[in-house]
Amino acid sequence: MTDGSSPFVQEIVRDLQRTQARISPKFFYDKTGSTLFHRITTLEEYYPTRMERAILEKASEEIARSIGECWTVIEPGAGSCEKAEHLCRLLRPRSFVGVDISADYLADGVERLRGTLPGLSVHAVAGDLTEELLLPPDLPMPRRTVFFPGSSVGNFEPDEAVALLSRILRLLDSDGLLLLGVDLQKPIDVLEAAYNDSDGVTEAFNLNILNHVNRLIGGNFRAADWLHRAYFNKERSRIEMHLEARRATAVAWSGGRRRFKQGESIHTENSYKYSLESFRDLLERAGFDRSEVWTDDQGWYALFLARPGAARKSQRRIAS
Ligand code: AVJ
C-alpha cells in the first residue's frame, strides 16, 4: 500500500524497518513541532540561539562590511523569519527568499517580514533541505548571501553536510557568500542539559514527531509508550536524540507494522558539535574557502562567512 505513496511516506516506512529504527529530524517540524522548537530557542538551557544572536549583534558591522553589497538573502529553514529580519536590516537586500519544510509556519513568518520591511521583495519556498533547493526562476544570480543560522547543519552526517554545502554553493556566483552558524564542542554537562531541559519542552518536541508521523503514514504510535532520551556520543561528537520504548510495543501503519522490545529505540536526531578546524575542513571539502569566523569568548558557538573557492570558478570556466 505504500507503493505510489509520497516520497516522505516511503522514506519514513523504510527508516522504521531498519534494525536501528530512525525517523528523519525533518519530520519534527509540523506546525506544533515548529512552535515547540521556537519555545526551545527561548529556554535557559538551550544556549545556541542566544549565543548566535549575541555574536551576530556584536560582529554585525564587521559582517556587513565583509559581505558588502548584497541583492538577495536566501535562508534555508527560515521558519519564523526572525533572524532574517535582523540580517535584512543590516544588509538591505532587494529580496529575501525563505525556504522551509513547514509551509504554513513559513507563510506566517514571511507575512510578518513583509509587514516590518515593506521595501523588501519577499518569497516563500516550501522545500526540504535534503533535496536540491529550487529558487524562484527570476531571482538574479549575482550578489547573493545564503544565510544558514541556528546550527541546522549539525543535523547532517559530516558527508551529508558536505553534500548540502555543495548544493548551497551551486546557488551562488563567484561573488556569493555563505553565512552560517555552527555549534562547537563544549563540556558534556552543558551539551546534555540543552537537550534535556527541565521544562520538558525538548521531550515534548521529540515525542511530537510520532503524532506527525502518524498523520503522514496512517500510524498508531502512542506517545505514552515512549521515553525521551538525549545524550552526547563522544566518539562521533554529536548529541543523539532517541525515543525509547517504555515496554514491548507493536506499531502499525497502513501497509505495515513493527514490534519494538522494551528499551529498543528510534533514533530521531543527531546534532554534531564541531571544532573550528573540523568545520573549516567540511567547508573546504564542499568547495568554499577564505572563510572568516566569529565566536563568543568561550568558543562555544561559531558564525562562519565562507566564499566560493577558486577551484570551483575554474570548473565553471571549463563548463561554459
Ligand atoms: C535546529 C537542528 C539546530 O540540533 O540543536 C533542538 C534542533 N533538537 N533541540 C539542534 C533541536 C533538540 C536543533 N537544530
Description:
- Helices cover 38% and strands 25% of the residues.
- With 320 residues, the protein is an alpha/beta fold.
- It is globular and about 60 Å long.
- N,N,N-trimethyl-histidine binds next to strand 11.
Strand arrangement across the biggest beta sheet: 4-3-2-5-6-13-12
**Ligand set:** N,N,N-trimethyl-histidine
Q: Helices and strands, in N-to-C order?
A: HEHHHEHEHEEHEHHEEEEEHEEH
Question: How confident is the prediction overall: mean pLDDT?
Answer: 94
**DSSP summary, beta strand count:** 13
Extract low-pLDDT stretches: none
What class do helices, strands and sheet pairing give? alpha/beta
Fraction of residues in helix: 25-40%
Distance between the termini: 46 Å
Number of helices: 11
- The percent range for strand residues is 25-35%
Q: In brief, what are we looking at here?
A:
The protein is of the alpha/beta class and 320 residues long.
